[in-house]
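User: These chains co-purify. Model them together.
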Amino acid sequence: MNTDIKKFIINQSLALDCGKIIKGFPLAYETYGTLNEKKSNAILVFHALTGDQFVTNINPITKREGWWAFAVGPGKAIDTNKYFVICANVLGGCMGSFGPKEINPETDKIFRTTFPIITIKDIVSSQKFLLDHLGIKKLLAVVGGSMGGMQVLQFVSLFPNMAHSAIPIACSASHSAQNIALNELGRQAIMADPNWKNESLTPDKGLAVARMAAHITYLSKAGLQEKFGRKLQDKGSLKFSFDADFQIESYLRYQGENFVDRFDANSYLYITRAMDYFDLEKQFNGNLSLAFKNTKSKFCVISFSSDWLYPTSENKEIVIALNACGANVGFVEINSDKGHDSFLLNVPKFLKTLSDFIKSTYDEVNNEKGI
Amino acid sequence: MNTDIKKFIINQSLALDCGKIIKGFPLAYETYGTLNEKKSNAILVFHALTGDQFVTNINPITKREGWWAFAVGPGKAIDTNKYFVICANVLGGCMGSFGPKEINPETDKIFRTTFPIITIKDIVSSQKFLLDHLGIKKLLAVVGGSMGGMQVLQFVSLFPNMAHSAIPIACSASHSAQNIALNELGRQAIMADPNWKNESLTPDKGLAVARMAAHITYLSKAGLQEKFGRKLQDKGSLKFSFDADFQIESYLRYQGENFVDRFDANSYLYITRAMDYFDLEKQFNGNLSLAFKNTKSKFCVISFSSDWLYPTSENKEIVIALNACGANVGFVEINSDKGHDSFLLNVPKFLKTLSDFIKSTYDEVNNEKGI
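Assistant: Joint model of the two components:
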């Protein structure tokens, strides 16, 4: 086990949606900043499909910058001089939390596809144990983009009185047919790789193809055109071969190859499955506003204009449901040509929106409790 | 050789864009309807990436309906009682034309990736020999969707006086970065399959993944949501496995599996490469309108509102370039939620547009020549 990975062992039982019960399982997590005395400055960040607990600073495993370094850190939108930031690797993940890469103590073999299917609800429920362990009764905020946003929605629905504010970003309350299709494409690419069935090999080629497919969906058509257009890799003429002629081809190949070093193919299967199964509306018999009817949280729903994976229209469905139950909700669509990826990038208006909203919650909480 | 495949052997030399010269190569083609005495009722149809010469009726190889059965046939928009329809399998294809599936006479082995890289220009040039062979000096119309539309544009540019009218549908004058990326994804899926390098095997799994990826792009998000949504394959509850839970998953798997029976993986590589290399603007030093400056054709450019692969904006670029050189051009955006696939489906307004435009050209041509 890598000593850079901090783990909390959950000794309580967790009944998963699939019917299995798990107990004594690890949750890997990180914290940034300092929890204040009142324990009123904690923000729970949920990561997306291929993210992990290493939100900011240098990720000790990959040696690259954390996935939300633009947003989280000293003086950043989520200011770690002021707030205490917690992020756990999701159940089913591959950065130390209980997932298909871990060893099944009953068989002494790696779980692989014998790991139980998990859901967004399971992921969120497991993190409640961590909050209890840290002694946090109420969070200042829960925040996350993409699959992280789904966890935000699930969290406030499960624990309506546990977060002062909630910020679901670039997400949806139920996975669309197109998004299920795109995830299935990735899974099929992995399962098509003959190495996938071989216990001593890894399906790197299949996983790379899955990543390439996903990566295309994270960017907008206009953004790709602006950044790559038809620029050639070598400045000369076309190669008349299947080598990478265009810069976009090299870029995608690089994204694919790079990904396999840091991600487990089976985790990819399990986490995409959790996303596909996410349907908060269905949990409440088709009435999404019932998911939020007891919520005490203040919401800020954020979407990006060029995000075609979780378009503004799907984010607005969340706003409509929150309005329908009288919740306190704000909505911002950020103009950006960076597509779904916008939430991970330096998009100033987005970062300002995030910063201002969290600050206003912090001030409100402090005034209530301090004066 | 399958006797249902009609072939014309081109004995002239064709200098390909890649620098190689080919000679004595087959072009498989079909015709529908009867060529009139004046030879003034011929329409050349160009097929798209995975299409073939079997435009309508039952395809004798696949035993399924031709890919444009909605549009072509007796009494259809392209009425074979009235018009003489010609369609050739593209160079690089796998339905009888010279392509990577054919045997290299020099080595007596299947070409596979030793086949020369071909371009849209090569594809179109090869079909000019077929027209000469059929004794057709001027076509009533050239028409095609998607890659077929690119061929329309290339044809009128190469042969400005050979078609009374031209109908590029749901296409682009140069392949966008996103579309190159999507094609590269398909190629990587094929090349990731270890069978691809094995002469006695076929990379069915890789090709199926490529097809699944492409198929998602042919449909719109709204169309997928409307047709599939989150409908389950079996009416009961979720399976908590990686089996196909959702109908969209089964549908995609079916599309993938089905495709490998009828398509050659190397043809897929070559034809997608031809699409990626297509850049009519670059052929004219960045000024697209120069591509059309000598054109005598009347144009009808057609796009579909929900097509995100070749969106209306890219089709409009063609219209703008045609306007800039004073060409006779009409433009129609058809409202449809069926995405890029709309041109292959029963979309009444589209079929009426097609029918009316061709009929008006026919009437004009007949009046000119007949009275």
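Chain B touches chain A through 58 residues (CB under 8 Å).
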